[in-house]
Write a structure and sequence with these properties.
The chain is of the alpha+beta class and 387 residues long. The protein folds into 3 domains: 54 residues, no CATH class; 103 residues, no CATH class; 209 residues, MetI-like fold, CATH 1.10.3720.10. Helix content is 51%, strand content 14%. Strands 2-3-7-6-5 form a 5-stranded antiparallel sheet, with no helix packed on it. It has a 3-stranded antiparallel sheet with strand order 1-8-4, with no helix packed on it. Helix 1 crosses helix 13, helix 3 packs across helix 13 and helix 8 runs antiparallel to helix 9. The longest helix is centred in the middle third of the chain and has 32 residues.
Length: 387
């Protein structure tokens, strides 16, 4: 009795859990990029994004300056507070903090506990006695005047720090606005052109009888498994021979060629599942194939068209390889992925905060497109799966 129409399947809970798990797995990287894009460079390299609201322990270097030296009972003393050092103002803006350890060597910045009195040794010579309290107050004493600054180290817990400097760096980068326009210039035509061509081809393969139709369908399916990397160099050589070279027209045609097999396959599967009676009735009434395609098939195939448009737009927007091959290397034609990879990162590959911010900026438009048209995605993907 489990298969009675209208009764829920006993495995519906498994489907719901699976969908929820996939949504969570999809959201985790996005949330991580968003959180990391607001974090400071040192904090993002010290702890994961999920620990962003928690304090972070860091080691710092500071100096006791002779300018603050005073003589007390024949002893020369330099005193102050490590948290009041202007060099640490970004981490301790209120000039207060909690010190967990200190040291006199960079190799062991937390060698001593707060309150201990230790000798500061330079080149085998004792140049003073140092003590640092838990509140950051330090005192350096010596029998002779201090001739130069004395460097020492300390460890302290820093509060969570979120900043907009990362976005200022990315958005105000020279040429980023131009790169955004170039990306739209590439992505929009590279999405529309293959849809137009594939829609005509899919209708012909679905509803028109002609010799070799089966071979063409098999060829389309075979092209789905061909890696685009195999065609990059031959296609670029062809573009240069016909006079297109590295240009926007060249990258439009390249994206069109790479996207057509999936587009034709997806649209053909959808169109072949449309009611035959509607199409035959239109032809009996005297409609031509072009009229049937434009007035009947195309409107009914909108879910499949929207589904492919999502895939194609996401692919072309996030593409780096094809853009590097088919666009000139000058800054006037750089898309956002190339701009980020070449200019913002470049030799600064360790700037994870810039990478996270640039990645989130670059996915903002694809996310908007996806959430706007996602209701058509499943309908288009399931096209032709049932009869």
């Amino acid at each position: 009795m489990d298969n009675i129409a209208g009764r829920k399947s006993g495995l519906s809970w498994a489907v719901n859990i699976s969908v929820f798990a996939m949504v969570v797995l999809w959201l985790i990287p996005t949330v991580g990029l968003l959180v990391s894009s607001f974090r400071d460079n040192q904090q993002i390299t010290a702890t994961g994004w999920w620990l962003a609201p928690m304090p972070v322990d860091f080691s710092f270097r500071t100096r006791a300056l002779p300018d603050n030296m005073e003589e007390i009972d024949g002893v020369y003393v330099i005193s102050g507070n490590v948290f009041a050092d202007p060099a640490q103002a970004r981490w301790f803006p209120d000039g207060a903090g909690t010190l967990s350890a200190f040291g006199t060597r960079g190799a062991a910045p937390g060698e001593y506990a707060p309150g201990e009195v230790v000798e500061v040794v330079t080149r085998g010579q004792v140049i003073g006695a140092l003590t640092v309290g838990a509140e950051g107050d330090y005192e350096l004493r010596h029998d002779e005047p201090f001739a130069r600054p004395v460097t020492f180290y300390f460890e302290a817990r820093t509060p969570p720090r979120f900043t907009l400097e990362n976005y200022n760096t990315v958005l105000r980068a020279d040429g980023m606005d131009r790169a955004f326009i170039n990306t739209l210039t590439v992505a929009i035509p590279a999405t529309v052109i293959p849809i137009l061509i594939a829609a005509f081809a899919a209708y012909a393969l679905a509803w028109m009888d002609f010799p070799g139709r089966g071979l063409l369908i098999a060829a389309v399916v075979g092209l789905l498994v061909v890696p685009l990397q195999l065609a990059l160099v031959p296609l670029l050589t062809l573009h240069q021979r016909v006079g297109i070279g590295q240009s926007f027209l060249g990258i439009w045609l390249a994206h069109t060629g790479f996207g057509l097999p999936l587009a034709i396959y997806l649209l053909r599967n959808y169109m072949v599942g449309l009611p035959r009676d509607i199409i035959e009735s239109a032809k009996v009434d005297g409609a031509t194939d072009f009229q049937v395609f434009v007035k009947i098939v195309l409107p009914l195939s909108f879910p499949a068209l929207a589904s492919f448009a999502i895939f194609q737009f996401l692919w072309t927007w996030n593409d780096l390889l094809v853009a590097k091959v088919f666009l000139p290397s000058g800054s006037d034609s750089q898309v956002m992925t190339v701009k980020i990879a070449d200019d913002l990162l470049g030799s600064r590959g360790g700037d994870w905060e810039i990478l996270a911010t640039a990645a989130f900026v670059s996915i903002a438009v694809p996310l908007l497109v996806f959430f706007t048209m996602q209701r058509y995605l499943v309908r288009g993907l399931l096209a032709g799966s049932v009869k």
